[in-house]
Amino acid sequence: MAKKRDEREVGMIMDGVIESMPQYAKELVAGGLAGGIAKTVVAPLERVKILFQTRRAEYQSIGLLGSIKKISKTEGFLGFYRGNGASVARIVPYAALHYMAYEQYRRWIILSFPNFNRGPVLDLLAGSFAGGTAVIFTYPLDLVRTKLAFQVVAPSKSSIHGLVVPEHVYRGISDCFSKTFKEAGLRGLYRGVAPSLYGIFPYAGLKFYFYEEMKRHVPEEQKKNIMVKLVCGSVAGLLGQTFTYPLDVVRRQMQVQRLLASNNTEMMGTFETLSLIARKQGFKQLFSGLSINYLKVVPSVAIGFTVYDVMKTYLRVPSRDEAVVEVVTNKRNIQSSSLNT
GO MF terms on file (predicted)? Predict the structure, then answer.
């Protein structure tokens, strides 16, 4: 009896907290949770993909299964999650900002341009601007995540038996931040941000475009079905990533240029790196790891969109159209009261 009473009290407290939260805060919470869960699920594939993109000779030659075996043998299970702490530390604020900014930009466009068509183009624009905003605020964490994932560190036993040569430049997230900032200042923490922005604008926009467009064709009674959301999210992530993947490869190689060529202090820009990869490593290298990325993106985007939609329902976030109507009504009430005054 007492247990049920305690549960009711906890439920009432949670209801009070949810009701008191502003809408943007609910969107931040839903987006951050969605990003953190999705990123953790696919972290092992993300590690292999980064090694494919940046350590071509060592890992591409042995393929996906060979790479998984090599990481498992030399670094153990935790090797699959190397850099994941920085990845989650980045993705939670990134996803929170991304989803919240998408909703805010979408509402702003509708309110500022009432005659603008509320079709998929609206989602494309809002998603693109939201992606750019999130990247600018969280990029240093992405850089740190890549540098940590790039390191190949063997356990002490492996080192003794000569399986790999230990390479431990950074001891953790704060150490990587500190050393990167000392080496190149704030500019060093934003190394590779240009291709990130070039890639995120179309990718984020296309991702929301395809997701919302596919949901529009789903029968009303099926729209709350989790499997339907997962399928829509999978296809949206797959299509969006295909168009922008080469810029992701350029970004990764720019992020680890200093580690790859410690004696060469000359750092190349986005288009120089793109040209160099195509010329010296071959055009195929621009799509290196894409097959792994498909395996990663399909569940990642699907889980992200699904968790976000489920959390919005749990947090009682009104539908997008209801939210816009509410803002317009409040605006009119304020204008009306000021006129009466």
Answer: coenzyme A transmembrane transporter activity
Residue 78 falls inside a structural domain: yes
CA–CA separation, 311 and 148 (whole Å): 31
Q: Do 250 and 194 touch, CB atoms closer than 8 A?
A: no
DSSP 152: -
Q: Is the alpha carbon torsion for 255, 257, 258, 260 positive or negative?
A: positive
pLDDT 10s digits, 204-262: 888 898 898 888 888 888 888 888 888 899 888 888 888 788 887 887 777 676 655 54
Q: What would the pLDDT profile of 131-154 be if each residue is shown by its tens digit?
A: 999 999 888 888 887 787 777 655
In this structure, is residue 310 part of a structural domain?
yes
Contact indicator for 72, 121 with CB cutoff of 8 Å? no
Domain count, the chain: 1
76 part of a folded domain? yes
Closest CA to 78 of 135, 161, 148, 170: 148
Amino acid at 39: K
pLDDT(81) > 90: no
pLDDT band at 101 (very low <50, low <70, confident <90, very high): very high
Is 10 a member of any domain?
no
Average pLDDT, the chain: 79
Domain region containing 29: 23-151+172-291+300-320
CATH number, domain of 145, equals 1.50.40.10
Question: Which of 80, 203, 184, 88 is closest to 142 using CA atoms?
Answer: 88
